[in-house]
Amino acid sequence: MHKILSVAALCGALFGATAHAALTPMEAGRALYRTHCMACHRVDGSGGVRFAHAVSADLRAPALERTYRHQDALIERAILHGRDEDGSSLHAPMPRWAGRLSIGQVRQIVAYLHTLRVDG
Ligand code: HEC
Asked: What pTM value is reported for the model?
């Protein structure tokens, strides 16, 4: 009994470690993006979905990176606190994600956003 339990524990530890290592920050960000952002910003990040007082933003590089002056911290602030590059409030229905996503999760999403690119 004791032996079976420790084998099970070892397998659990190994499987857990493998599953964790398999997911890069970018891949974790893609999963988070698809759960929390895609409905409004579309699967490719192109946005353009119309709401009463706003149109969802295009989140693809390089335009988003240029707008936020190539500072990930400013993109993170936009996501967490709904502030644009100059500190003005983003319009509803863009949620404020602070309290719902951790800073680590937001960094993973930003890593993923850098991979969504359009030329030009
Ligand atoms: C309910 C719809 C909705 C959801 C869900 C949503 N957004 Fe938005 N988002 C918007 C809208 C609308 C805007 C445009 C706001 C404006 O024009 O002021 C926006 C703007 C943004 C901006 C600012 C872009 C810029 O050019 O200034 C970023 C960054 C952003 N969203 C990221 C995200 C991320 C990341 C998620 C998921 C964690 C997310 N959004 C989820 C609707 C949404």
From this structure: 0.87
Domain boundaries, given as residue ranges, for the chain: 24-113
Note the pLDDT tens digit of each residue in 36-77: 999 999 999 999 999 999 999 999 999 999 999 999 999 999
Substitution site in 30, 32, 33, 40 for ligand 1 pocket (most atoms within 8 Å of beta carbon): 40
CATH superfamily of 24-113: Cytochrome c-like domain (1.10.760.10)
pLDDT in tens, 73-96: 999 999 999 999 999 999 999 999
Q: Whose CA is nearest to atom 26 of ligand 1?
A: 57
Q: Is the dihedral of CA 17, 19, 22, 25 positive or negative?
A: negative
pLDDT at 111 over 50: yes
Structure tokens at 120: 């030009």
What is d(CA 119, CA 100) in angstroms, rounded to the nearest whole number? Answer: 33
Q: What is the CA radius of gyration of the chain?
A: 18
